[in-house]
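Could someone model pyridoxal-5'-phosphate with this protein?
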Amino acid sequence: MKINERFLELKDSYLFAKVGQKTAEYRAAHPEKKVIKLSIGDVTRPLAPAVVRAMQKAVGEMSQKETFKGYGPDRYCYGYASLLESIKGSYRRKNVALSSDEIFISDGAKSDLGNILDLFAQDNLVLVPDPVYPVYVDTNIMGGRRIVYADATEENGFLPMPDERIKADLIYICSPNNPTGAAYTCEQLKVWVDYALKRNAVILYDAAYEYFIEEDGLARSIYEVEGARECAIEFCSFSKTAGFTGVRCGYTVVPKELVRSGASLNRLWARRQSTKFNGVSYISQMGAAAVFTEEGEREIRENIGYYKRNAERIAKMLRDLNLFYTGGKNSPYLWLKCPKGMDSWGFFDYLLENANVVGTPGSGFGKNGDGFFRLTAFGDADETEEACARIKKLFI
Ligand code: PLP
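Reply:
Sure, complex below.
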């Protein structure tokens, strides 16, 4: 018996553990201080009432012999028609036409981002932006693939563009990006699509924060870009959109035109899912379908608006302090350059000790994150206001 030794190559995911530990230690040493967390990557607003009602109705159906549901529909990899139709409708509004068997309902984007790698050989070269959501790197280390990085820096606005010298086979794009909040325009994505098509590569496009986009010209789906159906898989989630981090539901789009080595990736993914996955609960799916109703949409937009007001408060504070930052507008994340040349952990300690505010050190998201810091808009409005006032006082 041999273990997969690549697991031993993974760095300890110490970022959030260390943030938690340092915060706990500070709280224990200073119980009189009120520590505010602007480090939360999870949603805090409750579910929209329309979603709750839909889930309650679904529970009722499960309790009656006539309406009880077991495994989901086989034909659509367990996705229920009402949810698939709603998702198709939301894509139509972006001028993207999908068929039901191109949409795969999942328990969230993270699982699918990891599982999709079952489809790809080990000797593919993987291109990952730096900094980014650490899951892309870790899942490829587990799979033993070679990784190269696309540098996201202050100079390129944290939006790296293709480098023709890099012969990437799998390309990760996260837009709006976690942690930088930077989002690509359709024109920029077209350059990535052309690069992928030329190389016969596949783009893995993470759209988990798509609902936060408010500016025109930014892509809400990679399929808004011509040619993307031949080269891209899109990962979507209800987690940040509708507060489903605890409910669990997402979906992945694999277009039928996506063919490599003569094989349809749509068919391979359907085969993979039907073999290793048994679908998402009916109750979660009915809750997700309610997100697309008029009421549901309005209610989730209210929650997103709440977070956006927090983001605007933080952005104003950063502008007042003349600190360089990205994000906050089309994203719940604000990515700032640490003042006075501090490194990420130095700034973390400084902020915790002097303002009793917790953020996330940028170095935890990749080497280019050092010297940067992530603040999030997912907290309570009053606490966010207070944290901003404290930080401002510290630097003025
Ligand atoms: N993708 C990105 C970029 C994220 O930041 C997150 C969660 O923080 C996810 C995916 C995970 O989403 P889900 O909750 O749907 O698994």
